[in-house]
Design a protein that fits this description.
The complex is a heterodimer of chains A (258) and B (405). Chain A is of the alpha/beta class and 258 residues long. Chain A has a domain of 132 residues: P-loop containing nucleotide triphosphate hydrolases (Rossmann fold, 3-Layer(aba) Sandwich). Chain A has ten helices and ten strands. Chain A starts with a helix and ends in a 5-residue tail after the last helix. Chain B is of the alpha/beta class. Chain B folds into two domains: 126 residues, STAS domain (Transcription Regulator spoIIAA); 246 residues, no CATH class. Chain B is built from 13 helices and five strands. A five-stranded mixed β-sheet of chain B has the order 1-2-3-4-5, with helices on one face. In chain B, helix 3 links the parallel strand 4 and strand 5. In chain B, helix 8 runs antiparallel to helix 13, helix 10 crosses helix 11 and helix 10 crosses helix 12. At the A-B interface, helix 5 and helix 7 of A face helix 3, helix 4 and helix 13 of B.
């Protein structure tokens, strides 16, 4: 994989999974996952409830170690690296958790500012400018001094996105970004994801089963099957919708109508 | 001045990337980047950025530009030339946002067409939703006097809330005795086990040590008169009437009162209490009642147990160090104590149980919806119950003394 990662071409591989098996103790969630996520992909992880989408995301962001197999970022094997290298890699990730996971005792500004304070040597004034800009990007200008409990669920999610983007990450991970959002906000979030990819060249990995989102933003995907406990399709979701040899995938992508 | 006019003009002036711009005024620069302005004859000031405009390079603020505009007030429009910017990230965008803000405040138009496509789109996005000005949010008091006033008001507001809670507890108890309270019996037994039997080891340890301290404290004085046998009276009455209840109360405040506040506070954060309310189940009956009952039952029992352990400790000391036999000590203890003494101790313990459960549940139910609010609720529960316990102990001791019990 190293050779591929070093080639400079627009679709070079960014994240690569090789024979990944995920398990909680003896209970295997998914086995033999092998696929590539390219630079500037908007990559969708999809599948029915309980198939291990969020678990896969936890593996990708370094919260859970794989039972077997490897995950590589630009050719660097994450789980065999030293903790220092792992931390360096993690600084390149931005993660939006399902319900925002904002630190409840900190204001939105403090939430966004934490990683900037820790990992850059910017001054106070500059940090507050960056924070205001990030909050403005997600449509929360003026909410700097609010606590997470004082804003709505959709706003919390957007604030979580502002926090995920704080350090201009190379890879943004989203866990169910549009769950709990109204259609307009969900649409706006999709547009924001596309915008971030286009203007900042971010690679985006999204866990979702929101069909509208999948077709609007996804250009690559993997489908995890809960019965066979492995991936049964990968590729552009709009093509999978009609051309996948697996009936299950076509059914999923056509809302049960095959 | 139209947008296309400006774009055409700038192309006409310097179409090539590295061409030297004649009127360029450098406002500030570093080894990574430079910020300059190019004054044009038509009232437009072109801001020329070059180099690596990433956050890590300690980017400039708009102060120098502000100063320049102050000295040259005759510009109607700002434009940008970013053709020599090699890299950019959030840093460039925040700088540009402050330029836009500055121009708005001095009333100059801004033309973004000279910026890279990606930057322009991000700026549009950031300015798409106007900043919320009136958020209907009250700001907290800042001055010292204001803070004192605020905490006095908060305290005064807290009293009716606490009384209201007390009333609800009483109503829940009434429902319970009518047999109509909605709670799960299994929950009650689980809580009883948690606050009762599971606390035995710590109660044993503390009561034994307190009994030992009482015995030594008395023995040294009593030995001077050869009255070591009265260690039994001292330890017996001391443990049964006061110390066992007090120590058990303080242990339970730290152990169970804190746990109640943390449990209920976390349920408040997760909206679990709201979920109960929407089902029409009273959180007072479902959550608070079993906790009250468990402590009301268990604190007296633990106190009884603690006083016996304390007396055993007293006997161990008296027998081993002060020449009293086991039989003498036992008899003297029986002579010193009567049922009344035990009733005094147990009634105090019951009051402590109520106070601990009350403060734990009160603070838990009042908890805010954040991690630190749960922490504050827990701290406050322990502090409140210990203060209440000690105050109640003093009042009850005086009352019992006055009554001659």
């Amino acid at each position: 994989m190293t050779a591929t990662a070093q080639q400079v071409s627009p679709d070079r591989v960014h994240i690569s999974l090789r024979d990944l098996t995920m398990a909680y103790g003896d209970f295997v969630i998914q086995r033999d996952l092998s696929f590539d996520i390219n630079h500037e992909d908007i990559f969708i992880i999809m599948g029915g409830s309980g198939c291990g989408k969020s678990t896969l995301l936890k593996h990708l962001i370094g919260l859970m170690a794989p039972t077997r197999g490897d995950i590589e970022y630009d050719g660097v094997n994450f789980w065999t690296s030293s903790p220092q290298v792992q931390n360096k890699l993690k600084h390149r990730f931005g993660v939006l958790f399902q319900s925002g996971a904002l630190w409840s005792s900190q204001t939105l500004a403090e939430n966004v500012a934490l990683s900037i304070e820790e990992y850059t040597d910017l001054g106070k004034k500059q940090i507050s400018e960056v924070v205001s800009y990030k909050l403005a990007l997600v449509g929360l200008a003026g909410y700097e001094d609010f606590y997470p409990s004082e804003i709505s669920g959709g706003m919390r999610k957007r604030a979580g996105l502002a926090r995920a983007m704080a350090l201009d990450p190379e890879i943004l991970f989203f866990d169910e970004p549009s769950a709990g959002l109204d259609p307009i906000s969900a649409k706006r979030l999709d547009e924001l994801i596309l915008e971030l990819r286009d203007s900042l060249k971010t690679t985006v990995v999204v866990v979702t089963h929101e069909l509208a989102s999948i077709f609007d933003i996804g250009n690559n995907s993997v489908f995890l099957d809960v019965e066979t406990k492995t991936m049964i399709a990968t590729g552009d979701p709009s093509k999978l919708r009609t051309d996948s040899p697996e009936a299950k995938v076509r059914e999923f992508l056509n809302r049960g109508k095959t | 001045m139209s947008l296309s006019y400006y774009t055409g003009m700038s192309r006409h002036l310097y179409g090539d990337r590295d061409i030297i711009i004649p009127n360029l005024v450098t406002l500030s620069d570093s080894k990574h980047w430079s910020l300059s302005v190019n004054p044009m004859d038509n009232g437009t000031l072109i801001i020329v950025a070059a180099g690596d405009w990433r956050l890590k390079n300690n980017l400039p603020d708009v102060g120098s530009l502000h100063a320049y505009l102050g000295d040259h007030p005759d510009y109607q429009q700002l434009g940008f030339d970013s053709r020599q910017v090699s890299h950019w990230d959030t840093g460039f965008c925040t700088f540009l946002l402050s330029v836009i803000e500055l121009s708005n405040s001095v009333g100059i138009k801004v033309d973004l067409s000279g910026l890279p496509e990606g930057v322009r789109r991000l700026l549009m996005l950031a300015t798409a939703v106007p900043q919320v000005k009136d958020t209907g949010r009250q700001y907290q008091a800042t001055g010292n006097l204001q803070k004192i006033g605020q905490s006095a008001i908060d305290f005064a507001n807290g009293v009716p809330a606490a009384l209201h809670f007390l009333g609800e507890v009483v109503l829940a108890l009434v429902q319970f005795f009518k047999g109509k309270a909605q709670y799960k019996r299994a929950d009650l037994f689980l809580i009883i086990q948690e606050v009762g039997p599971n606390a035995l080891p710590i109660v044993t340890l503390i009561s034994f040590l307190v009994g030992l301290i009482l015995a030594y404290m008395g023995a040294v004085q009593l030995q001077q008169f050869g009255a070591q046998i009265f260690i039994a009276d001292l330890v017996g009455i001391g443990m049964v009437r006061e110390m066992a209840g007090l120590m058990t109360g303080i242990i339970m405040a730290g152990r169970s009162g804190a746990a109640f506040a943390a449990q209920l506070g976390t349920m408040q954060v997760n909206e679990e209490i709201d979920a109960l309310k929407t089902l029409g189940i009273s959180p007072m009956e479902y959550l608070v009642l079993p906790r009250m009952l468990a402590l009301i039952m268990m604190v007296p029992l633990l106190t009884l147990y603690g006083s016996i352990v304390g007396m055993i400790a007293g006997m161990v000391i008296a027998v081993s160090a002060f020449d009293v036999t086991v039989f003498e000590y036992y008899n003297q203890t029986l002579r010193a104590l009567n049922v009344q003494q035990f009733l005094v101790g147990l009634s105090k313990a019951t009051v402590y149980g109520v106070l601990i459960a009350y403060s734990g549940c009160l603070r838990g139910m009042q908890s805010g919806r954040s991690a630190s609010a749960v922490g504050e609720a827990t701290t406050s529960a322990v502090v409140t119950s210990i203060v209440l316990i000690v105050v109640a102990a003093s009042i009850l001791t005086i009352v019992f003394h006055a009554l001659g019990i």
